[in-house]
Amino acid sequence: MTHDLGAVRKLLCERLCHDVEVVRRFDDAIMVRTHFRFPDGDTYPIHLSDSASGGLMLSDRGHTLMHISYEHEVDSFMDGTRGMLMKRIMTESGLHWNNGAFCLDTSPEKLSEAVFVFGQALTRIYDLTLLSRSSVGSTFYDDLTDLLTSLIDESQIQQDYQPAIPNSDAYRVDYMIKGIRENQVFLYGVPNRNKARLTTVMLSHFHRSGLRFESIIVFENQAEIPKLDLDRLTDVGGDMVSSLAAKDDLNRKLLQRTA
Fold first, then answer.
1. What are the tens digits of pLDDT across the range 233-245?
2. What is the number of structural domains in the chain?
3. Are residues 151 and 228 in the same domain?
4. At which of 131, 163, 182 does a domain end?
5. Cα–Cα 20 to 30 A to 38, which of 3, 44, 151, 224?
6. Is the pLDDT of residue 21 over 80?
7. DSSP-derived 3-state class of residue 23
């Protein structure tokens, strides 16, 4: 590098101090101005206030979800795989909720670091809107596998299981879980309407074949499955879990069969 390191450092510090400001708005609110922007050009409204612990709190005052709501139904966005990814981002970044706003607590000494962590986290959350339905669906089974192995011992789970019936290769089970008293628990992940229909066909075939098993259906978002398809699946399926976010519900139903 031919440039003087000290000069580059001095220039960077000067520009950062110039481009990142703490200002008081007309309504007396304190804001941190940065170059973080939404795709429509609006800057992130990062508000600064005292935290309950005596330090400082950064907040977007709900503007990130407001921007997401322009093109997405927020409740659906926060459910299923996107919801799981958003919660993971919040955990990794230290964000928490406060009346519908994303917030981050920090100390005055770490304010500069917190501003960049907060801006990066909001960007990651907003970028979840760029995931197409097919892209989101492709992460569903990975997330379901991670969730299952966090709840029960991995040795109890067999993926892509072939049941003991003729032509079993055509009737593979997403996850076979070893239950109590040698019971088999067939668990299916259902991210969409097509998988709901396929699962109905498979479970119906198992019943006709006299196979002994219990079943659990885990949806990406149960509310998105058309009623007729859901009714048919309900007729042949066992317990159902509305989404990956219903971790406690899934854990309870697994424990009933494996503990």
1. 999 999 999 999 8
2. 2
3. yes
4. 131
5. 224
6. no
7. strand
**Over the range 21-57, which residues count as b (16 or more CB within 10 Å of their CB) and which as e?**
eeeeeeeeeebbebebebeeeeebbbbbeebeeeebb
The two structure tokens encoding residue 94: 């230290």
Torsion sign across C-alpha atoms 160, 163, 165, 171: negative
| Cβ–Cβ < 8 Å for 56, 44 | no
Closest-CA residue to 93 (of 71, 64, 124): 124
Let me know: does 147 contact 245? Beta carbons within 8 Å: no
Give dist(CA 243, CA 144) in Å, integer. Answer: 10
Residues 207/222, Cβ–Cβ less than 8 Å = no
Burial class of residue 215, CB neighbours in 10 A (0-12, 13-18, 19+): buried
Enter the DSSP assignment of 101. Answer: E
Residues 202 and 189: beta-carbon distance below 8 Å: no
- Give the 3-state secondary structure of 102-121: EEEEECHHHHHHHHHHHHHH
CATH number for the domain spanning 156: value is 3.40.1350.10
Residue 132 has pLDDT above 80, yes or no: no
In the structure, what pLDDT confidence band is assigned to residue 13 with cuts at 50, 70 and 90? low
User: Using CA of residue 99, residue 140, residue 71, residue 240, what is the dihedral sign?
Assistant: negative
Retrieve residue 245's tokens: 């976010």
Q: What is the band of 202 on the pLDDT scale with cuts at 50, 70, 90?
A: very high
Residues 89 and 200 in one domain: no
Q: What is the pTM of this model?
A: 0.53
Q: Are 189 and 144 in contact (CB under 8 A)?
A: yes
Q: Are 140 and 248 within one domain?
A: yes
- Do 222 and 243 meet the contact criterion of CB atoms below 8 Å apart? yes
Assess contact for 228 and 201: CB atoms under 8 A.
no
Confidence of residue 22 (pLDDT cuts 50, 70, 90): confident
